[in-house]
Amino acid sequence: MGFRWFGEQDDNISLSQIKQIPGTKQVVGALYDVPVGAVWPQDEIDTLKKQVNDAGLKLEVIESVNIHDDIKIGLPSRDRYIDNYIQTIKNLSKAGIKVICYNFMPVFDWLRTDLHHQLADGSNAMMYEQAKLPKDPEALMTQMKTGANGFSLPGWEPERLATLQELFAAYQDVDEAKLVENCKYFLDAIMPTCEKYDVRMAMHPDDPPKPLFGLPRIYKNMADMKRIERLHESRCNAFTICTGSLGENPANDLPKIIRAFVPKDRVAFMHVRNIKFVDKQGDFHESAHLSSEGSLDMFAIMKALHDTNYDGYIRPDHGRNIWGENGRPGYGLYDRALGITYLTGIWEALEKM
């Protein structure tokens, strides 16, 4: 069980607080000040690892080493950025990293239309309403930045998105088939290094799992996962199953997806969170982890993991801001800590049944 942490310079949550959450053994971390596409310096990786270890926690999962857009677009310069990515994998492996969570989403890593939707119980959570999605991506960027509470938002690097119009233009000829082709090129290039150094790449689902702003998405459902799996046959070509992201499409049967891929050893990382649908069009807000608070059956999800003998890495995902906390949207301390306690409680019950 782990807890995502954004580093002492950009997180109002301390490692000592994380250590006090019962059952929490590791931190899921990253270097957030390294530009996308650059090599992660060994000394900075080692410093992060020492910080975490000195707090009595492990650092074995990195989220995320983001992929440069030139790789996703398929530009000639992609080979240079792939070489940098390979060196980063080698550097992380020297620090004992076992899993790298990443995504292959064009332009926007994830998006919501409200980062502080007020809930009936007085807490607030992130929300997505299709009708409120700005037609202009620039307006969406402004909206996200305004709602960030002064924190950085993972996947919304300001230096990368500063030239948004040019970025959209570069993706103009990239459809779903081309994005899949470029993903295969990337995986074929890095997998020999991953296998040599025993580092698993765990692709994160698209969030939301549907095309937006005319941009393609390639990890939306089980059919997409089977296609990604075939791109390179290796246990290092693995998945992050995010119940919230995949669950945003009601047609996705999460326990069925877990039961399909965990026995094949293709799931390296789990994000377990709940969401609450507010209409039949798929609009939702994020919720407390309990099944009764959302639209996903968390017991069925955890039982599927237990029945398939999942022994990989797991963390709670986006929570609410509760008890007056005014933290990074989706990444407050208290609700994620409650989520860990709830998930580990289900697991203990399953172990004793």
TrEMBL record:
Pathway: Carbohydrate metabolism; pentose and glucuronate interconversion. It holds the Pfam family UxuA. This is Mannonate dehydratase. Keywords: Iron, Lyase, Manganese. GO terms for molecular function: ferrous iron binding; manganese ion binding; mannonate dehydratase activity. InterPro entries: Man_deHydtase, Xyl_isomerase-like_sf. The gene is uxuA. Belongs to the mannonate dehydratase family. It comes from the Bacteria.
